[in-house]
Amino acid sequence: xxxxxxxSIFRDIAxxxxxxxxxxxxxxxxxxxxxNIEGLPRQLSEIYGxxxxxxxxxxxIGKDLSEKIKEMVITGHLEFFSRLMGxxxxxxxxxxxxxxxxxxxxxxxxxxxGIENVDDLxxxxxxxxxxxxxxxxxxxxxxxxxAIARFRRNEGRMTAxxxxxxxxxxxxxxxxxxxxxxxxxxxxxxxxxxxxxxIDLLAVVKDTASAxxxxxxxxxxxxxxxxxxxxxxxxxxxACQIDLRMVDADCFGAALVYxxxxxQHNIKIRHLAKKQKRKVSEYGVFSVxxxxxxxxxxxxKEKDVYGKLGMRWIPPELREDRGEIEAALTGKLPRSxxxxxxxxGDLHLHTVDTDGKMSIEDLIExxxxxxxxxxxxxxxxxxxxxxxxxxxxxxLKHIENIRKTARKYRNxxxxxxxxxxxxxxGTLDMEDYVLKELDIVIAAVHxxxxxxxxxxxRRLIRAMDNKYVNMLAHPSGRLITxxxxxxxxxxxxxxxxxxxxxxxxxxxxxxRVDLNDVNCIRAKELGxxxxxxxxxxxxxxxxxxxxxxxxxxxxxxxxxxxxxTYTFDxxxxxxKR
Length: 577
Known about the structure:
five-stranded mixed sheet; DNA polymerase, domain 1; 23 helices; Beta Polymerase, domain 2; seven-stranded parallel sheet; Beta Polymerase, domain 3; alpha/beta; 4 domains
């Protein structure tokens, strides 16, 4: 069980205890422990393997929580959590997934209106019962309805980063068994889609019965839904299903193409094969004689499947029937899609000086471990009070501190930056005399999300007109399960970014994938350039770079279009306006 999963369970326990109106100090202990666990540089399983006693030495972890962590590390689940979950009717705790509905509000709705699930909440909102409660109102009620709609769109799905971590954990477990000769991710997870329904794994094994038994014995397994000679399925982490398909080595490549998808991509591949008097399936590529006789001609490797159809291998992230097959047939596929190894630095990072959990030194050390050539410290400006945002005086002192600290390190360049807020009228909440002292200025929206399209468009364009702004952070402002995107004219904003040499960000912090692949495709067409940033506040969040790279690849972005793949000298020139 990964640190994130343990932290998530502790946060869920804290929410449940708050609903039960239990001791506030106990609730805080679980939340503090969750936060401390997420900030650990090592996995709990690794710490436990070195010496179980070390678990008790983690800040905020007393004897009780230490024993619970050990139980989760050893068994993959927590009996105490299961008992707590069992105290509530089915579907009740799903309500915690509704944006804006915290434990206190949920308790109030349960006690006053008898709400036990999402359907109950929706009916009560539509009957105007929620707006009649003290402290709520019509606006809150409408926000709940909007949040319910988002919840239903994402119900049964998980974000790609969580799915990837879970898949990696299962693959690591299976790889310990020599019976597994080859294992690969497939499906939407391999294509880099931002949310995933099921996790698909494809394997070549020596003995299918033994492999199936190994798979269904995974410690985190909650339910076995299928166990056969070619396919097994388990449920884990709530409703998430993981499918393992076992195939012969000589058709592994064909199966990987088929089970990676997308469905539309596969349909077009089959139509193309048919025109060439061939057949493509998960079992291989076959030539078809006039009499209908089939002959196996390829299947072991993906590149051979595409090659037999007259194409270069198509990267998984492009397989969405967006013209990739036509481009592959005519030699027009991008030659250098951006890759994780191309990234030379992260240009959006936070420290303890505002709302991060790392010092400047800690942040620099993390960036060095990533092998980065440069990085940027970009703490919040004054508008974001909840994040301890800086005013002009504090920021000037902060710039001095960043540069003083940076001089201690010769193997990495450290940029002094800021994440400055875009106000309602498009001006910035930091004076120009301070902005001009910075190496990089990232402008962001953190307020007035519901402005109309014309106002929002005007606001963003005006912000980018400021000659000190280098980048537009998380441009759409959306959170995958919690907040819809800003309503603005994307063409006008993207074109203005290109004209002003303002970089558009692909941000992977928390539930963001912003910009998403569709927006990046259009922004690229309009001449914009991009930076893939993690917006990290904690060390482990820097691993989110892989998710941003996958999104960039889905948008057909090449190295030349992603500025944090540039050398530092080229980046400095790019940041000049």
